[in-house]
Amino acid sequence: MFGISAAVLIAPFIIAVPAASAAVPTFPNNIVVFPDRDFITIEGYQEHIGETATVEVTRPGVGVIGSAESVVGAGDVAFEVNHPGGVCWGAGTAPKVTPDIRSGDVVSMKFGATAAGDTSTQDVYVTAAPVLAADGVTVTVTGFIGDSANQAQIEQRIVDPAFKGTPIGRRDVRAVPGPLTANVGYSSSLVFGIAGPNTFTATYVFDSRDTAGIAAAAGSGVRVMSWQLEDAAANRQGLTIAEFGELGGPGMGGCPNGPLQSGPAGATDVIAATVADSLKITWTPAKAIPGTPAITGYRVHAVAQTVVNGERAEFGKRIDSPAAKTTTISGLNPAETYDVFLVSVSSAGETFPAVHAIPVTDIVAPLVTASPQSGSFRTAQQLTLSSNEAAAEIYYTTDGSDVFLSGGTLSALAVLYTQPVNIARTTAVNFAAVDPSGNLSAQGQVVLTITNDPLPSTPTFSSPPLAGTGSVTLNWSAADPGAPGLSVTGYSVQAYTADGAAAGPPRTTAGDVTTLVFDGLAPDTAYQFTITASNANGASAASAKSDPVQALGAVVANAGADQAITRAVTATTVVLDGSRSTGTETTYLWEQILSGPTDPDRVTLSGPTTVKPTFSLPLFATPMTNNPLTFRLTVTSGSTVRTDEVGITPIASQISVTGARWKSRDLRVDGISSSVGGTVTIHSGGPTGPVIGRAPITAAPAPQTGGVFTYRLRTSASNPGSVWLDSTRGGVVGPVTVTAG
C-alpha cells in the first residue's frame, strides 16, 4: 500500500527499492552535520510533530560527548541544535557541554528508546581559501578527503549572495566530480589527487572577471559537502557540510562552553563541615567529559574571610587520586570563618570557576533509609541504602551485629556502603551513617527473606501480529519456566487500544501453546498486545507491547505494495495487485490519481475493474516526469466501500553533459549515462522546445561503466546558446550552455 517499501516482483524490469543502511535516515528525514560550527540540523520527521527527540554525538571508543533534547516542529526543518532559533547542546540532557564534533563522530537521534537514524561525520574539508589565477577568471579550491569518504558523493560550493547580481542568478556556484562542465555563468570541475594523496581540487572558470573576483573573496562561504547515501531520487542522506574558516563552540548566547573552555568538570555535592580546628570537606568525584583528558585529582583551599593588612590566610590540600571524595584541612582558627574552594585537576588545567562551599557547624544526625523494606521475596534483591545528607558515610553489617559500638567506635565488621548490596539469601542487615561533623544516625535494620521461588522468563513475540477479520493471530517464543523441575503452566495475552487502555480481559492458553487467535476485536481498529507466562510460583513480567495491528473489517481494500520500476529501453508492463482485498460479492475499481486533465504522466489502465489490472509505463519524453504514479483501489461489497492507494515510482537512468560546443556550423554535444540503451533527445529554447536531434546511448569503453552518447550536427547555422536533453529512460538535464569557438 502507498508508503510501504517496495517488494520484489517478477514482472520485467521491476525491482525492489534498495534498502538503505538501517542507521541513515530515509528521505524526507535527514540528519545534517556542520562539524566546523558544532551545529546540527534535523530535517523532516513530520510524523513526530510535538514529540521530544534526543540527539546524541558519540565518538567511537569514547562514548557520548554531547546531547540535547528538542521538540519536533512543523516544516522542512524539524529543529536545530547550537544554531539561532534552535536549542543548545545540553538542553534537557547531560553533560552541559558543546561537543567538538570531528570526522568519525556519529550523530544519532531517538524518540524515547526508539532509534530514529544517525549520520557519521564525513572526513572532508576545504584546506585553503580560493585562489584566483593570473587569467582573472579561473578560481581553484583545494581540500582534503579521507579514505572513508565516497568520491562520487561529494560536492564543493562557493557561497556568496553577491552571485545573485551576476548572470549566475543564484547565491552559489558548485563543482561536482568530473571534468570541466558548463553551467550558467561559469564552468566547473572536481577532481581528486592533483595536489597529493587524499586531496580534491575544484576548478571554476567564470564568464567574467567580476564574478571570479566575488568567488575569490568568498572567505567563510567556501564549503564542501559529503553524504553517506544517495537514493533513487538523488536525495542526499547522512549529510556533512564542512565550512572553511568557521569556528566551533557555542553558536549563540547562553549555550554551554566547549569541552575544555572551562577546564575539567567540577566535583558535585561539595560540603564543608567544621570539626574543632579543622574542616572536613566531602564531595562526589567528578566525571571527565567524554573525549577530554582524564581527571587526575583535586585541589582544595580554605580561605579566611578576615582581611589582615590586605591579606587573607589560605590553607589547602592537593589530592592526587581522581576517586578521592574527602579530605581534612587541619590547624585552622576555630574563631575564623572560611570559604572553601574545590577544583578538579587534569592535564588540560583546573575547573573554572572553582566549586564554592561555606563551612557549616552540623549537630543534626543523618537519617538513613533502606529499599526494599523487610519482607519475603521469591528472588535475590538489591538493597539500596541512602542518607538525607549526601556527604554522610553509610556502613552496614550482614551478621546481625551493631554497626557502631559504644562510644561511637566503628565495628571492625562494618562495611562502607558504596553500591547496592546483593542479598541472595535470607539476611538481617543493620545500617547506620556518620556525617562529616561526626554525627551518628540511629541504627536501622531490614530483614530480607529470600524464598528462591523463581518465576518464568518474560515471553517475547516471535513474529509481527497478523490481522484477520475482527481478529489478530499472535505467535510467541516459549518462556523459560524458571528452574529445573518447573514448567510453564499458561500464558496470558492482554489487548490494548490505541490510547493504551486495556481492551477487555486477557485471554489465556495452556503452557504448551505458543499461538493465539485473539478474536472478538472491533473491525478497522488498531490494537497492541502484551503476554505473560506463569508457573507454580506466579506470573512473569509482561512483555513489551507488540507492533500495532489493525483488525480487519468484513470488507478490506488492499492495493498491494508500493513498487519501483526501472525505466527500460522498451515500454514496461506493470501489474497492480488487489488480491489481498476481502469481501463478499465484491466489485473492484482502479483509478489513477492525476494532477489535472493534462497530467503528462497519465497512463491507461487495462482491466480497471479486475483484481490485477495492468498498464504500460511508456518510454520517457518531456514533459513527462519521474514522479510517483498513484492509483486508488475502491472495493465495494453491498453498501460498504473501502479504498486503498499504491504508489509506482519510475526509477530514471541519469544523464549528464560532458561537453557542448559550436564552431563553424559544427554543433557537438557529448554526455554520459548511468545505464546503457535508449535514446537522448536534444532540444533548443527550453525542455519542450524544437528538437535539434537525437543520439543513441551506447556502452562506455572499458574500464568505464555505464553509457555514453555523442550528437554531432555539421550543418548548424548558428549557436543555439543553451540546450536541454532528455532520455527515453528518464534522464533529464538542462539548460546546458553551448560554448563557442
Q: How would you portray this structure in words?
A:
The chain is an all-beta fold. It is built from one helix and 58 strands. Mean pLDDT is 90; it is low at 1-22. A seven-stranded mixed sheet has the order 6-3-2-18-17-12-13, with no helix packed on it. Helices cover 1% and strands 45% of the residues.
Question: What's the layout of helices and strands?
Answer:
Blueprint: E1 14-15, E2 30-34, E3 39-43, E4 52-59, E5 63-71, E6 77-81, E7 106-111, E8 114-120, E9 124-126, E10 131-132, E11 138-145, E12 154-159, E13 172-175, E14 178-183, E15 186-192, E16 199-206, H1 209-216, E17 222-230, E18 236-243, E19 268-275, E20 278-284, E21 295-304, E22 314-319, E23 326-329, E24 338-346, E25 349-350, E26 355-357, E27 368-371, E28 375-377, E29 381-387, E30 393-397, E31 415-416, E32 421-423, E33 427-434, E34 444-450, E35 460-461, E36 466-468, E37 471-477, E38 490-497, E39 507-510, E40 515-518, E41 525-535, E42 538-539, E43 549-551, E44 563-566, E45 572-575, E46 586-593, E47 614-617, E48 629-637, E49 640-651, E50 655-663, E51 666-673, E52 679-684, E53 691-696, E54 698-699, E55 707-713, E56 722-727, E57 732-737, E58 739-740
Parallel strand pairs: 2-18, 28-34, 44-49, 50-58
Antiparallel strand pairs: 1-44, 2-3, 3-6, 4-5, 4-7, 7-8, 9-11, 10-11, 11-16, 12-13, 12-17, 14-15, 15-16, 17-18, 19-20, 20-23, 21-22, 21-24, 24-25, 24-26, 27-29, 29-32, 30-31, 30-33, 33-34, 35-37, 36-37, 37-40, 38-39, 38-41, 41-42, 41-43, 45-47, 46-48, 48-49, 50-51, 51-55, 52-53, 52-56, 54-55, ...
